[in-house]
């Protein structure tokens, strides 16, 4: 029994000695760091897991700090996960705290090439003085370089800004061309420019009695229709006789695209009568007027425009 107790005591002392030796052993000294990653092409939005390997490989690297040289290209999390932000090149660095050791990884984020571009509206019809922003559709939709330059085939008809805003300058047709920054792809937009007066319809209806040369009595209706894509603000309806105003109706109404407005008037013995609508478009003032020159009785139907000498002009 005594011998058995002695042997157990010796074994216990030996175990304590071995444990003490292990606790006193220092951690392996790290001599180098290396970053490795899968060989793949990266694009904006992709992620990549980097692996930090020490020498010797069993050393503790839990104190590693990760940084990116350009956060516009890529960012990196504390555990070495890289997220690609945009095309370009940057350096990902891992440093071991408390040492001078570090490792670097050259990272390239490739740009997705543009396969084609197109205007969202390939044809436009504008009025003189109007501005129209344009939009380009890129294929693929996640193209990285979305820069473009713009030119006009006829700047007397339409000009275009560096941001793709078209300004209608004069009547006619022009082609706006957009090119990608590398010049590899292009798109075209056909622009037709009209005067505003070409987008207004005016017609008359009623019964006219011509008693002598240019002396007339009438029950008449003058209709104004807005065929443009702009709102009109109709100010008033006027009838004149020999340049003297014999009827005025203040309207003060906005006439939207596709809408029409009719005003009625009855008068007797007017000489050389003229009928006028005065309206504004934006800051521009216009007038639509008709001056009849007929003798005898005449009835105009109210079902549509007539071929009459109706003039729409800008007021000065």
From TrEMBL:
Keywords: Signal
Record-annotated BIG2 domain positions: 29-106, 113-190
SMART domains documented for this protein: BID_2
Signal peptide positions (record): 1-22
PROSITE patterns (UniProt xref): PROKAR_LIPOPROTEIN
The name this protein goes by in its record: BIG2 domain-containing protein
């Amino acid at each position: 029994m005594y011998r058995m107790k002695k042997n157990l005591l010796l074994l216990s002392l030996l175990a304590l000695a071995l444990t003490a030796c292990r606790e006193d052993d220092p951690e392996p000294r790290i001599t180098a760091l290396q970053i490795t990653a899968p060989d793949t092409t990266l694009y904006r939005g992709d992620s990549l897991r980097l692996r930090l390997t020490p020498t010797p490989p069993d050393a503790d690297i839990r104190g590693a700090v990760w940084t990116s040289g350009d956060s516009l290209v890529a960012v990196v999390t504390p555990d070495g996960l890289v997220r690609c932000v945009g095309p370009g090149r940057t350096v990902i660095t891992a440093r071991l705290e408390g040492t001078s050791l570090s490792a670097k990884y050259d990272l390239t984020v490739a740009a997705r090439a543009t396969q084609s571009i197109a205007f969202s509206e390939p044809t436009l019809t504008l009025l003189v003085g109007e501005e129209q922003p344009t939009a380009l559709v890129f294929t693929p939709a996640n193209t990285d370089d979305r820069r473009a330059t713009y030119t006009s085939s006829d700047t007397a008809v339409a000009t275009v800004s560096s941001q793709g805003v078209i300004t209608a300058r004069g009547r006619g047709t022009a082609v706006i061309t957009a090119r990608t920054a590398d010049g590899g792809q292009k798109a075209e937009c056909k622009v037709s420019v009209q005067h505003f007066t070409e987008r207004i319809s005016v017609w008359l209806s009623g019964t006219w009695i011509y008693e002598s040369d240019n002396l007339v009595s009438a029950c008449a209706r003058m209709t104004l229709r807005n065929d443009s894509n702009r709102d009109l603000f109709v100010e008033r309806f006027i009838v004149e006789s020999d340049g003297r105003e014999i009827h005025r109706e203040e309207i003060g109404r906005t006439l939207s695209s596709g809408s029409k407005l009719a005003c009625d008037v009855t008068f007797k013995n007017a000489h050389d009568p003229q009928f006028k609508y005065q309206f504004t478009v934006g800051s521009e003032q216009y007038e639509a007027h008709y001056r009849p020159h007929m003798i005898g009785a005449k009835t105009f139907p109210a079902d549509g425009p007539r071929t009459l000498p109706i003039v729409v002009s800008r007021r000065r």
